Amino acid sequence: MDYEFIKVQKSFLDHLLQHCGNCRHFDEQLEGSVDGQVVKIGPSQVKITKSRQQTADAALTWFLKHAPKATTWRARQIELGLQTAEQYEKVIQAFGHIAETRREAFDGMISSGDQFVDLAERLALLIGRSFADADLQEVTARFKTLVLLSYCEVLQKRGVAFETIDRIISHVGACESERKKILKGALWINGVINNLVDSGWTIFRATELFFLNALSRRYLSNIRNGKNVTALLSHLTTDDFLGNDYSDCLRPEYTIPGLIASV
């Protein structure tokens, strides 16, 4: 029987690819057989670790290229159809109702109980519909995904089983091998927001940056590494971003914790 081409379950292939990416023997020289003769198989010419770094670099390059500067921030808002404060508020209201930005609202929400898992399920299903709705801007669905993933991180820290969280994230369309990575990517972005605030950004402006310049799931799953944090902060703490009061821009006041609390 010819086994040159076989079908395997996708989850098995995902596990294989993950193993190859982490296996310390992956680049060692091995022996193989070709036409009955023993030959040496050298290190892989396409190294997974190098590929991952290239993908992370591509994600960073995209983000920095499209990150609106102070002089183009208002233009980006208009480009997304945010002409007035009322229009912007309606976009935020899509999360359930007007966002509460007070930190204590978020702190009060966090407790044990299935109702919070149910909340995450509802948010995930809402996002799934948003991606499929031609009238809803893709950037809004991407940002909602970031909020959902941030909430899932909170649930995980509160002891909710990863199997439950994985089921929730599956509603937004991410494949099995991608879900853990985008969850970590969301945690990474929340850390970047905190670093931007420490560097002089307001919490609202730093949050809005990741709405106006929302990352796709592919980039969200790959941008995370220490090198990229340094490059990102170096780029975003110049006068191009901090040397302006943004007085010509709409000034929404929402944060990721506040949006979670408002759902």
In short:
This protein has 263 residues and is mainly alpha-helical.
How would you describe this structure to a colleague?
This protein has helices at residues 10-22, 48-66, 73-79, 85-93, 103-109, 114-132, 138-157, 162-170, 176-198, 203-212, 217-222, 226-236, 239-242, 256-262, and strands at residues 30-34, 37-41. It is mainly α. The model is unreliable at 1-5, 24-48, 97-112 and 131-136 (pLDDT under 50). The N and C termini lie far apart (57 Å). It has 14 helices and 2 strands, in the order αββααααααααααααα.
What features would you highlight for this structure?
263 residues, mainly alpha, 14 helices
Outline the secondary-structure elements.
Blueprint: H1 10-22, E1 30-34, E2 37-41, H2 48-66, H3 73-79, H4 85-93, H5 103-109, H6 114-132, H7 138-157, H8 162-170, H9 176-198, H10 203-212, H11 217-222, H12 226-236, H13 239-242, H14 256-262
Antiparallel strand pairs: 1-2
Helix pairs in contact: 2-12, 5-14, 6-7, 6-8, 7-8, 7-9, 7-14, 9-10
Q: What is the strand arrangement across the widest sheet?
A: 1-2
Helix content: 55-70%
Sequence stretches where pLDDT stays below 50 over 5 or more residues:
1-5, 24-48, 97-112, 131-136
Strand content: under 5%
- Profile the largest sheet: 2 strands, antiparallel
CA-atom Rg in angstroms: 22 Å
Supply the helix-strand structural class.
mainly alpha
How many beta strands in the DSSP annotation? Answer: 2
Give the N-to-C terminal Cα separation.
Answer: 57 Å
Please provide the ordered H/E string of secondary-structure elements: HEEHHHHHHHHHHHHH
Mean pLDDT: 76
Secondary structure tally, helices: 14
Gross morphology is globular
